[in-house]
Amino acid sequence: MTAVWSNSGFLSKNGMSLEYACVGPDPSEAPTIILLHEGLGCATLWRDFPSKLADATGFGVFAYSRAGYGQSDAASLPWPLDYMTREARDALPEVLDAIGFNRGILAGHSDGATIAAIYAGTACDPRVRGIVMMAPHFFTEEMGLKEIEKAKAAYNSGELRERMSRYHKNPDSVFCGWSDSWLHPEFKAWNVSDVIGQIRVPMLAIQGRNDQYGTLRQIGELETRGTSNVDTLILGDCRHAPFLDRGEAVVAAIAEFCEKLELVKTTAPERT
Known about the structure:
272 residues, alpha/beta, 9 helices, disordered N terminus
């Protein structure tokens, strides 16, 4: 993969083109926040959140659209039911290397939060000094699956598809890959909670009290299984996207988390 760092563009991974956007200092100059989007998200759908994060922290902020999302090349259907684990294991390490990631945090939303947790718990990457998880999923919940069924009905009616087509060049691939995985009968048994106990860096977990896709049981799992420090922020008047519903509070919490980690003062670890 070719090293990249500019405002926006595409990077190449195993012959596949992935859309990216970034703001703030180069990874050689400051820590970097890697943004990992939700199951129907992409780099563009972070909206102005990256620039607000960069302003509040002084860190660089990098977001990319996973294969199949946004303007990235399509991913083959059907997705494997362990697609989040595969993203953390196979794709994310290559992206981090491609941008010259030296040190920083992973900050994910929904599926992206789960990917961040899996990577932090399994990769033992010394460059990752902490993780932020907004509305993470570690196991399925019936209320969340019912909400996905509602989303599928909205997509089939054309309303949701029209909205998604503004941001994804192949919305059918995105939606079907995501919904068919979560609604697959075997996915009800999906559970990656074991990874929590393997995370050795500080964590910040953020969730809305009105999250329609997951309950506070997900955060409770972090608090019960976590062996590293876990800070939590539970927000009222907030659904599944805290960075949109309660953006100021989320940016402030992440900035405080980054300041506590004192990443700016830390020299980059040696790679072996």
